Amino acid sequence: MAIITVLHNQSFQDIAIEKTGNVLNAFSIAVANGYAVSDFLEPGTDLILPEEMEIDVDVLNYYASKHLQPATALRDQKVIEKRGIGIMKIGSNFKVD
Fold this sequence. Notes:
- The structure is a single chain.
- By secondary structure, this protein is α+β, with helices and mostly antiparallel strands.
- It has 3 helices and 2 strands; from the N terminus they run E-H-H-E-H.
- It is elongated, with a radius of gyration of 20 Å.
């Protein structure tokens, strides 16, 4: 059993790819630590990596050789106001000249 520390913006999918080479292991990692796979992780959190996971050696070696540490879990993004034909209403927020 290994213990890893979550980096800023890492998701369970990022950790699974980096540490096992197989994104499907995200589910096992989440469950082993009492999380849902869709939960946001706080940087600095220690997680247990279960021993019984399928390892994709080729992907794992690629990430290790390039020193890649994926961190794709973005949150607190600014929401852009929806605009366009499907949203606008004539006479309300759409003007026809």
